[in-house]
């Protein structure tokens, strides 16, 4: 490790967030055993700063404090300063976020933690303005030097509490049944904002996993109130300011309860998860708005988040130091771009007023209703959107975090395959295929999965559970659409690695987020709750459940048992905290239906019956097509009387084959 005097080591990092701080006068280093050893050698505490590239307040604190010579001098003199990208090292983020929440009652980024040289936290917080931060640095230094016993006591107590927290959800939950799923759905619907859409109050985050789970519940029960909740929330978000009405794509969250003003960063994971949910909603209902949002969100991924065949992490909230400046408009700006006729019309359509909905009288565009198509509103809206988008392109654009995260690309692969089926767009399958192929090649090193890469250079961080699970599910989806056995084999290898390195050997069905041979941290994280992205454990449950019906018989039995144990080991979440278990509910809904499998004996390149199966299949169902014996589900299953034949199974129980689309719909309990 370079000497701490006068050095900043972030210039060669594989994280754009860390590189943003390479010019700071702070002597930043990356997290490593050498960094901890340096703190021990100097007998100083560690100042750990965790954030991410699209984080607005991370930029504010960097500008106010980390770029300031006075603050940097205090940091360099009395601390080993470690900068971490939470997206590159979610394991570190999880450990120290738990500490921050335990100490302060809330979390967020930037996260600021003070640690002993062996990594135990003794004081944590989030954003600090410069003056307050300088006072804090002085107080921490005085405490470290003069009252070390207090530091040791506090860090010991916090460490003990974190150890208790890692115990997670106790096992032995209720059996995963339709009744348990119904209970969870009822609880979720009880929290719905039926007027503004969404669940709970401001700030509102896109409930992507809940929407997918509710759709699967609706397909099982046919309950109109469940579909109504999906429609209300899906419509409110799609027509609100959280959705980019010009270019497509969703922002991170809405600061208000009506989806008007977003926090403007756009994350790959949000858009991938929402693309899957909107594609599912559109496929089941043919709702025109759902179809449009599905198409536009897929296009947004391919146009704005693509880096070659892979997908980058995010677009920043800020442009030129101002949050949202790329996206907001005043009535005069609309008139300047569109003229005296279209300008006022656009202001009315997009709800842009002189008062504004954002800062300085500007407004975030909303589209509360589509213009009347009979009066040429569709063509006029398309023309206006194109003109505004072209004008917006001349503004300073948000920064990009070009880091490629394995798990989020896995989510994107799954979403693109779902959208491809809904929209009947084979180019989306091709995009998913290319992403899967390149990701496997680039992010597999010595037989193990890595977490990130940047500019084609793979990072040092090892893949965590969500990386293995999300990518495995994406590969299984590509396999179902292409029939290419290499993707099934790769998915099974990832699942086998997960079972070997992440499963808790002492608690069947429980999982750690980091591998058993990964860097040893103060605690080994294993968060079972679904958050902005699904928990690693709920993602691996989905992968196991799907692979159990596609893999060879020896693996299939192992995967079936592991999936059942995983769901049972976390079923208490569905009973007690269903809003924090959206993806668990989606997997549980699939499980209680068998899961459903549809195998179509056919020529997969030209089979209306296979296309119908994919369109009719409920969320989480497994659909394959091909000639007899081309896959495990088609073993011994051939066309019938010269006609394509669909074999419908629920778990290990199968119906007689059907040869017509109406017969297939009837077998699935769907009216056509």
Structural class: alpha+beta
Global Rg: 26 Å
What's the total helix number?
24
Q: Give the low-confidence spans.
A: 1-5
Mean pLDDT: 95
CATH fold call of the largest domain: Glycosyltransferase
**Apparent shape:** globular
CATH architecture of the largest domain: Alpha/alpha barrel
Helix amount: 40-55%
User: How many strands, what sense, and barrel or not for the largest sheet?
Assistant: 4 strands, mixed
Strand order of the largest sheet: 2-1-3-4
Instruction: Give the count of structural domains.
Output: 4
**CATH classification class of the largest domain:** Mainly Alpha
The percent range for strand residues is: 5-15%
Number of strands: 22
In whole angstroms, the N-to-C terminal distance is: 67 Å
Topology:
Blueprint: H1 16-19, H2 33-42, E1 46-51, H3 56-66, H4 69-78, E2 80-85, H5 90-104, E3 111-115, E4 121-125, H6 130-146, H7 148-165, H8 178-190, H9 208-221, H10 224-239, E5 253-254, E6 262-263, E7 266-267, H11 268-285, H12 288-304, E8 306-307, E9 310-311, E10 314-315, E11 318-319, E12 322-323, H13 331-349, H14 377-392, E13 400-401, E14 404-405, H15 406-423, H16 426-443, E15 444-445, E16 448-449, E17 452-454, E18 457-458, H17 465-482, H18 485-501, H19 536-547, H20 553-569, H21 571-576, H22 582-592, E19 596-601, H23 608-616, E20 622-626, E21 645-650, E22 653-654, H24 661-667
Helix pairs in contact: 4-6, 5-7, 8-22, 9-10, 9-11, 9-22, 11-12, 11-15, 12-15, 13-14, 15-16, 15-17, 16-17, 17-18, 17-19, 18-19, 19-20, 19-22
């Amino acid at each position: 490790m370079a000497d701490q005097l006068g050095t900043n080591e972030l210039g060669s990092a594989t994280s754009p967030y860390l590189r943003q701080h390479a010019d700071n006068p702070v002597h930043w280093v990356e997290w490593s055993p050498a960094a901890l050893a340096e703190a021990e050698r100097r007998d100083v505490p560690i100042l750990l700063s965790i954030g991410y590239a699209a984080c607005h307040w991370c930029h504010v604190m960097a500008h106010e404090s980390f770029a300031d010579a006075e603050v940097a001098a205090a940091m360099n003199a009395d601390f080993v300063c470690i900068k971490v990208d939470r997206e590159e090292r979610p394991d570190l983020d999880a450990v120290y976020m738990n500490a921050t929440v335990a100490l302060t009652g809330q979390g967020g980024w930037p996260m600021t933690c003070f640690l002993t040289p062996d990594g135990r936290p003794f004081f944590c917080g989030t954003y600090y303005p410069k003056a307050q931060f300088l006072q804090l640095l002085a107080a921490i230094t005085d405490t470290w030097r003069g009252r070390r016993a207090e530091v040791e006591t506090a860090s010991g107590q916090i460490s003990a509490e974190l150890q208790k927290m890692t115990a997670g959800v106790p096992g032995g939950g209720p059996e995963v049944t339709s009744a348990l799923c119904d209970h969870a759905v009822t609880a979720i619907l009880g929290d719905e904002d039926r007027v503004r859409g969404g669940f709970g109050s401001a700030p509102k985050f896109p409930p992507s996993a809940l929407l997918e789970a509710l759709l699967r519940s609706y397909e099982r029960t046919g309950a109109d109130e469940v579909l109504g909740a999906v429609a209300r929330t899906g419509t409110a978000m799609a027509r609100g300011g959280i959705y980019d009405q010009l270019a497509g794509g969703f922002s991170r969250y809405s600061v208000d309860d009506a989806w008007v003003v977003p926090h403007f960063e756009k994350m790959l994971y949000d858009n991938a998860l929402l693309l899957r949910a909107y594609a599912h909603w559109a496929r089941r209902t043919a709702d025109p708005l759902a179809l449009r949002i599905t198409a536009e969100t897929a296009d947004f991924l391919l146009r704005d988040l693509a880096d070659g065949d892979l997908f980058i992490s995010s677009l920043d909230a800020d442009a030129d130091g101002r949050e949202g400046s790329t996206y907001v408009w005043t009535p005069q700006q609309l008139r300047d771009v569109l003229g005296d006729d279209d300008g006022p019309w656009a202001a009315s359509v997009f709800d842009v007023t002189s008062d504004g909905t954002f800062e300085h009288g500007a407004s975030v565009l909303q589209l509360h209703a589509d213009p009347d198509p009979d009066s040429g509103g569709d063509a006029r809206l398309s023309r206006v959107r194109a003109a505004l988008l072209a004008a917006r392109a001349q503004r300073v654009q948000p920064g990009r975090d070009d880091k490629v995260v394995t798990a989020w690309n896995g989510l994107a692969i799954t979403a693109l395959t779902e959208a491809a089926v809904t929209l009947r767009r084979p180019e989306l399958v091709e995009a998913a295929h290319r992403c899967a192929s390149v990701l496997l090649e680039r992010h597999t090193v010595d037989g193990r999965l890595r977490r990130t890469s940047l500019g084609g250079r793979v990072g040092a961080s090892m893949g965590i559970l969500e990386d293995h699970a999300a990518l495995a599910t994406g590969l299984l989806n590509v396999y179902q659409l292409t029939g290419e056995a290499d993707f099934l084999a790769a998915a099974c290898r990832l699942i086998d690695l997960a079972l070997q390195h992440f499963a808790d050997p002492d608690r069947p069905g429980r999982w750690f987020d980091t591998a058993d041979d990964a860097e040893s941290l103060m605690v080994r994280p294993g968060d079972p709750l679904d958050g902005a992205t699904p928990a690693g454990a709920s993602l691996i449950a989905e992968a196991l459940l799907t692979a159990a019906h596609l893999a060879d018989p020896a693996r299939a039995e192992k995967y079936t048992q592991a999936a059942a144990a995983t769901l049972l080991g976390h079923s208490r979440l569905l009973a007690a905290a269903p809003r924090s278990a959206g993806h668990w509910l989606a997997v549980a809904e699939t499980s209680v239906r068998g899961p459903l499998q549809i195998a179509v004996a056919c020529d997969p390149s030209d089979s209306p019956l296979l296309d119908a199966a994919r369109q009719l299949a409920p969320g989480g169902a497994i659909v394959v097509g091909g000639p007899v014996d081309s896959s495990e589900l088609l073993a011994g299953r051939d066309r019938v009387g010269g006609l394509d034949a669909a074999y419908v199974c629920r778990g290990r129980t199968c119906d007689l084959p059907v040869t017509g689309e109406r017969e297939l719909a009837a077998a699935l309990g769907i009216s056509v």
